[in-house]
Design a protein that fits this description.
130 residues; Neuraminidase; five-stranded antiparallel β-sheet; 13 strands; globular
Length: 130
């Protein structure tokens, strides 16, 4: 999973088969750097500057995906499929490689290639957009 941030795209269906998320084409944000593209959800919503390292929650209620912010850092975007809300974890990350999203906890590695740090963040920490 550590190479996912460098993928050229992603297509993933939620565990219950109801939702779909895709980034058709992701491009390097700089030479040899991880990629970014437009996330398209099956309900018609789109989010720009997302990285293909997405993960569905095991109950299909949420999608977590890194989104590039200013200064080459990433935010962790969380999308609620139940009510259409989205929000962000308050922290900034270097390069996320998300691995699992079970029991309300998103797990992965921040910066899988250089000085990796394991993360485990609860969905309860999301700051939901108004």
């Amino acid at each position: 999973m550590s190479d996912v941030p460098w993928y050229g795209g992603v297509s993933a269906t939620s565990p219950d088969g109801h939702w779909h998320a895709a980034i058709e084409e992701a491009y390097e944000i700089a030479m040899g750097a991880p990629t970014a593209g437009t996330l398209e959800l099956s309900d018609g919503r789109t989010f720009d500057w997302c990285n293909p390292a997405l993960v569905w929650s095991s109950d299909s209620r949420y999608l977590a995906i890194p989104q590039w912010a200013e200064h080459g850092m990433q935010l962790l975007l969380v999308i609620s499929m139940d009510d259409g809300r989205h929000g962000y974890m308050p922290e900034l990350y270097r390069v996320l490689a998300l691995e699992t999203f079970e029991d309300g906890i998103i797990r992965g590695i921040d910066s899988p290639i250089f000085q990796p740090v394991a993360i485990a963040v609860p969905v309860a920490n999301v700051v939901w957009a108004a």
